[in-house]
Every structure is written in C-alpha cells, then in structure tokens.
Amino acid sequence: MIETERLLLRPLRVEDADAFVALHSDDRVSRFIGTYTHQRALDRLTSIERQWAERGHGLCAVELKSSGEFIGRAGLNYWEMFDEVEMGWTLRAEAWGHGYATEAARACLTWGFETLDSAYFTAMIRHGNTPSVRVAERLGFTPLREDTLAGNPVTVYSIDRPAAHP
Q1: In what helix (H) or strand (E) does residue 103 lie, and over which residues does it extend?
Q2: pTM higher than 0.85 for the full model?
Q3: pLDDT surpasses 60 at 119
Q4: Which DSSP string corresponds to 11-44?
Q5: C-alpha closest to that of 75 among 157, 164, 12, 138
Q6: Of 78, 73, 162, the residue nearest 120 (C-alpha)
Q7: What whole-number distance in Å separates Cα of residue 106 and Cα of residue 60?
Q8: Residue 166 pLDDT more than 60?
Q9: 164: confidence class by pLDDT, cuts 50, 70, 90
Q10: Per-residue pLDDT tens for 5-40?
Q11: How far is it, in rounded angstroms, from Cα 130 to Cα 135?
Q12: DSSP character for 162?
C-alpha cells in the first residue's frame, strides 16, 4: 500500500469490479479510455492481479484516506507491445480539480523508481485529453513520440529516472 497525505493506493482486485465499471461508465471519464462491462472489468482486473503477481507492480485503487471512498485508479502498467511501463491515472469526475491525480501519480512514480529498475516511465495520453497532459507536465513528463494504443492515436510522454534513484 502507498500512502500520501490524502490518499491510500492499493493493488486493484477483482473485488473492485463494480467500482471499476462505475468509474468508466461516466462519459466525462470514458471518452478517452472507454467503458467496461462487468465481464470486461473482471477480465481486466484479473490481468492487473496477474501483473502484480508476476511483475511486482500494476494499477492501484485510489481511495480517500479520510473516508476510504474509491475515487479512481493510478499506477504502473507494463505494455508488452511497447516493452515499457506506463504511469496511468483515471479518476471519477467528482474528484477532478483537487490535485488527487497528481498526488497519486507522483506517489506511484516515486515508489516505481525506488522499486523497479526502469530507466524511465511513459504516460500514453490520447489526443485532446488536456487535463491529463497538464498532470503529466506537472509531474515532469515530456513528449517522447506519437504512437497508437488500442487503435487510438496517443502522444507518449516520458520521465527519466531521477538521479536520486540510481
């Protein structure tokens, strides 16, 4: 578990399927990442659990420390097709504008650089997703390349391992 001033981050589990589906059912959230049926959520969450077991990292549930409320997901996801680890974040629309995405992603990045031997992490952001670009820039990500993810054009941002984490 990763703890910040306001948030708790823990590995996502199949038991989170209902919250995961609800997160992605809001059009404001899903327009850049798509929706999930219950079965698709179970499949994705099973894959996330497998990644935690096999690679020692994956996506986390983001919960408010004050209430335990599930407000989204953030974490490090390995993409075999790119042979890269991506830092991702997705929050419920009601949680936007409070700095939670930046706080969660910064904690995951710190943990990732302390735990993994990756030279850099990426953030794959669909064109037009200005709020995620702002989060990436606040974290120190810079554009690396243009690519395609799940049939959608993305700008791939990257952040190099800081000197403090050799």
Answers
A1: helix 100-115
A2: yes
A3: yes
A4: E--GGGHHHHHHHHHSHHHHHHH----HHHHHHH
A5: 12
A6: 162
A7: 13
A8: no
A9: low
A10: 999 999 999 999 999 999 999 888 888 888 899 999
A11: 9
A12: P
Locate tokens 């390995």: which residue? 78
**Contact residues for 109 (Cβ-Cβ < 8 A; gap 6+):** 87, 121, 139, 159
Q: Taking all residues of the chain, what is their mean pLDDT, rounded to a whole number?
A: 94
Say if residues 90 and 29 touch (Cβ distance below 8 Å).
Answer: yes
Nearest to 51 by CA among 32, 26, 76, 28: 76
Residues in the chain: 166
- SS3 of residue 91 by DSSP: strand
What domains sit in the chain, N to C, each tagged with a CATH number?
Answer: 2-160 (3.40.630.30)
* CB contact set of 96 (below 8 Å; sequence gap of 6+): 131
